[in-house]
User: Which sequence fits this backbone?
């Protein structure tokens, strides 16, 4: 389960949002991971056997998601999902805004400077217009 402002969050709470920035905390060690996730995914679908493809939006696996970091995923596998707290730090109305806020939290908390974080790298591409809203 994901939490936002200490409240469980579900599909009805995310209407109008595209992405979110999150923190996953290992409850045994206190080690954390900060990342972002989209609520939907886009995939291509062949149209009538033609080479043209149509982009189709569908729900992502956000409710089951535990990040992309291999060390974090290994700990989730070893310890069990119930040993981790998943919280949403920021709901975002665009992918660009999520990129900005993910980098902001990662830099602000100095995730690369501490062994208390699973994060191994920070990758971001943000335009000024992403932060105006």
Assistant:
């Amino acid at each position: 389960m994901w939490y936002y402002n200490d409240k469980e969050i579900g599909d009805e709470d995310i209407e109008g949002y595209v992405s979110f920035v999150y923190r996953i905390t290992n409850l045994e060690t206190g080690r954390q991971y900060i990342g972002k996730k989209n609520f939907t995914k886009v995939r291509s679908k062949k149209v009538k056997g033609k080479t043209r493809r149509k982009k189709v939006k569908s729900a992502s696996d956000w409710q089951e998601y535990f990040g992309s970091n291999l060390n974090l995923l290994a700990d989730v596998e070893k310890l069990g999902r119930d040993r981790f707290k998943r919280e949403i730090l920021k709901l975002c109305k665009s992918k660009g805004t999520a990129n900005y806020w993910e980098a902001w939290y990662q830099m602000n908390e100095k995730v690369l400077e501490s062994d208390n974080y699973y994060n191994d790298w920070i990758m971001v591409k943000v335009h000024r217009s992403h932060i105006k809203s």
In short: The helical segments are 70-79, 95-108. The mean pLDDT is 90.
